[in-house]
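Summary for the steering committee. The consortium agreed at its last meeting that each partner would contribute one worked example illustrating the joint modelling workflow. Our contribution is presented below. We chose a case with several input lines so that the handling of multiple components could be demonstrated. No manual editing was applied between input and output; the record is shown as generated.
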Amino acid sequence: MEIVISVAVLFVVLGLIGYFVGVYNGLIQVRNNMDKAWANMDVLLKQRHDELPKLIETCKGYMKYEQTLLEKITQARTSFMNATSIAEKTQAENQLAAGLKTLFAVSENYPDLKANQNFLQLQNRISGLENEIADRREFFNDSVNIFNIRIQQLPDVFIAGSLGYTHRPLLEIPKEETSDVKIQF
Amino acid sequence: MSSSESEDKLFFYLCLGIVFGILGFFRGFKIRGKKKLIENIPTSTVRGMAVGLVEVQGVAQPFQGTQKTPFSKVESVFFHYKIEEHQGSGKSSQWVTIKEFATPSWFLLEDGTVKVLINPVGAEFYLAADRKYQLGSWGGGADTEVFEQGLIDLGISPHGFLGFDKQLRCVEQYICPGDAIYIMGEASENPLVQGSATGFENLCIQKGDAPFFCISDESEKELLVSFCGKMYLYLYGGPVLTVACLFILIGHYFRHFF
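What follows is the complete predicted structure of the assembly.
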């Protein structure tokens, strides 16, 4: 009878070890998924930044009265390049996105610029990248959300605490971008 | 059957139970790993997909045309069938797979953003049985002729000795254009498109180095529920089976040793 009890105890011990190994591996996985999601978004952000000097150069010749806007975009680009933390990068990225949005809106007032093939090509490329960035941003936020939930759940919270995992912020869109647009006729 | 023979059989089944219990226990952990993988990876849009393990949901679309399923003659982008024959007699009879096939043809998945190519080779399929056919003494019902014709087309005779119907059964699963599907697999280099300016066009989903590649016509939630059920069954059922078999084995055969 002792053998049967020993086997039952062995199963319980193996089950517990397996369970905690699973929890530990799961936490490592969600953490790496989150870092990978950020890195994948960063790749696209860099690709877009590489297109910006060409865009500004093209616009400069046509938009003589929009120098402040072009400078603002250049500054945001530089801030992004110098940013080290995710929070800093997010802030610079939001400024840049807002600047580009305004630039494309203002370009409607410059028919010569709108007819420029180079500009149209860059606009399409940047808009395409914007869509991909938006998707990856959503994916990153999902990854962060899964991570934040996991590190607060029982029993993951104990292992997460010993690994030094803490709550991560989501990439949030600034309020001015989500507020209603006032249309006047 | 003599008493010695039945004792031998009982001994054999108890040993088998112990082994299956242990294997089931470890299988439970394997299923748990897959379940956690699905839970830990968020669903990505095809447009935002990056290289590596991805989870996508959308509708199936044909890549180079559709193909007719062998029995139901339904236009599909993918189909799988398994034909089994009942062999032997009495207690030793069993269902033996005589033919199984899954189409290796590529198809597309569209999720409202863009489309991505899917290479189904090497995938684990979690598809509902779309059609079931049966032939023989269990009866075939209304679809007997359809099943017989399908078997003849595949070069399998539905008739056995003296022209009697064989005991055959078949399960047919298929994905039709427009069917909602869930896929987890590795996004890797698309061999058909290279050097596209848009990153997602350079990718396709396939087995690659992915620890888990599955194609399902169930939603993520339904798949998780099914995995959860299996996981508990194996994780708890396995040890219970082993301990119970061991208990009977010792009580019945080795009582005098303890």
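DSSP finds seven helices and no strands in chain A. The helical segments of chain A are 2-60, 67-82, 86-106, 111-115, 117-152, 156-163, 175-178.
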